[in-house]
Amino acid sequence: MLATNSIRFWIVFIPLIGIFSLASWLTYDTIFHATSDYEFCTSCHSHKPIGTSYLEDVHGGNNAVGFRATCSQCHIPQDNSFNYLWVKSLHGVIDPTMELLKDPHDIDWHGHREKRESYTYDSGCLSCHKFLQEKTLANTKAFLPHRRYFLNSENQQDSEKLSCVGCHKHVGHKNLGLHLEQHGWKNSQNNETSSQGD
Amino acid sequence: MRAVTTPLRSAAVLLFSLLISTGVTAGNTAQVKTLKIDRHLTAAGKECISCHQKHTPGQVADWKESRHAHAGVSCIDCHQVSEDSPMATQHESLVGTDIFVTPLVSPAVCGRCHVDAKKQFDASGHFRSYRQIIPKDSLHALTQVHEGQGIPELNGAPNETGCMQCHGTKIELDKHGKPTPETWPNNGMGNIYPDGSTGSCTACHSRHKFSIAEARKPAACASCHLGPDHPDIEIYNNSKHGHIYNSDSQDWKWDSPPDAWEPGDYRAPTCATCHMSGIGELNVTHNVSERLFWNLWAKESKVRNSDDVMSPLLGNGPAGRAKMEKVCSNCHSSQHTKNYFTQGDKAVRLYNEGYYAPATKMLKELKEKKLLKDNPWADEFQITYYHLWHHQGRRARQGAMMGAADYAHWHGFFELQMDLYKLKDIYKKRLETGKIEH
Known about the structure:
The complex is a heterodimer.
Chain A: H1 2-34, H2 38-41, H3 48-56, H4 71-75, H5 81-101, H6 109-114, H7 122-128, H8 132-137, H9 140-151, H10 164-167, H11 176-182
Helix pairs in contact in A: 3-11
Chain B: H1 2-25, H2 43-55, H3 57-64, H4 67-71, H5 75-79, E1 80-81, E2 100-101, H6 107-110, H7 115-122, H8 128-131, H9 137-147, H10 157-167, H11 212-216, H12 218-222, H13 232-238, H14 240-248, H15 271-275, E3 305-306, E4 315-316, H16 317-328, H17 334-368, H18 380-401, H19 405-433
Antiparallel strand pairs in B: 1-2, 3-4
Helix pairs in contact in B: 2-3, 13-14, 17-18, 17-19, 18-19
């Protein structure tokens, strides 16, 4: 009798675990995707120029094939799931809080561009640009810096390492400096990022 | 018979002269009608080349000789900027396109590919070339008030045609994003570009050929390191290294790859060989301070001991000396090298102790007793003191450390002793009379 009850319990419980897991995965996956793209991220006022400059860029859909990289593909690390979840959660808490507490124009976007290497992740770039190493080693123009990036990255100290956006300063957001100016973020001083092509 | 051969002969002569003239013009871009290059360049990139080949053929001819051309790096790769750059301009043929260009190509641009070269340069004494003179009020007074005679619209000339051309400046833009005539053109080593980066790669690798061979020759350094205050090219020519270079360098190999330019490619070192090149165990570096022991240009020579790129003592003296000895060891015995540096160090110490110290002691005392003129350039004591350290003192030290007997002696210590006696004489008179002589 006892054994029959126990079996009945497990027959019901095991599928329930499965259904719960599936439902929670579906929910989180939907949430993650829904909060990772242009439409969600640029709904905050502070991110308007970030969005308009993105739409002008190849990565924002301004290309012949209709491809678009999502915000999170570049700005959340793609190296492992825990890191992904951690950084996304941090942004999920900090970004909306600051949006509410701060005047958006107090955000020093021009200054933040200088720190882009800290919030743009190579793992994101490389998860789409999977064959970058092979392609750039066969391209005379791109060969030199990309060989330096790939071949030595394991033997180098952090200060020696290169990152994608360290060199590709404008990638993802075309003419961001102009878009920021147009949306009311005045650039008080010239800096390296606002001045160069990539 | 004659009637037949003459026209034939004339035709042959004509054909021959045609061949000669074709031979002469071959390879001269200026006379080729269209330089058609594909090399996976973009349409816009190709347009730069074909149009500039007509309007500024010298630039394209230079580029054609460069390694950039081999690699498919063309005008637009270095000169294009984004629209939001303060340097963004468009000449007539670009208006209406989304292509923006600038004549200013900063070290940050070169550093996009030449990553390590830029990092090493940014950690070198050359980085300081302009930045170190920004706070020097006495220098600005010299060029603007004295040399410029205080004439407002003209007193920038001595700096713009002099200092700036070697030291560089902060390049300013007009409201159209074009560089101002007060700050550009110049190839000064320490330029601060509108993008914030510092340096001028073209100071040594002149545009648009950017040749490694050129930068390895003493002439690349000589356009700044010359003259009464640091006659380094004269010192080099005076040295045995220079003697061999000047008599025997026509067939040396100048374009070996970095780190692989070794004795055998040359019979004697140039400036670059000792101060920068990968030779023997050493790797190539764009940090010219890395192999130095002394500072040989300051008023007093001290051993280098600073990590601060803005410090005149940037570098690590003992480590620098060890590296330089490794350079020497490619051609010289350890005994030769050791004795050589013993000779040079003795001369530097003699300058410090025998000339700088007593001269500075007198200067300080006269200053305390208000026995110096306000205008240093009309004061015999201060002029002589300046010559003592800035001219003859540097010549003695740099001549001694780089093997130039004439500069160590006749242009150096010989003049130093006369300077010192003159200073002592003026000092004595001023103290005795309590007045500055007229």
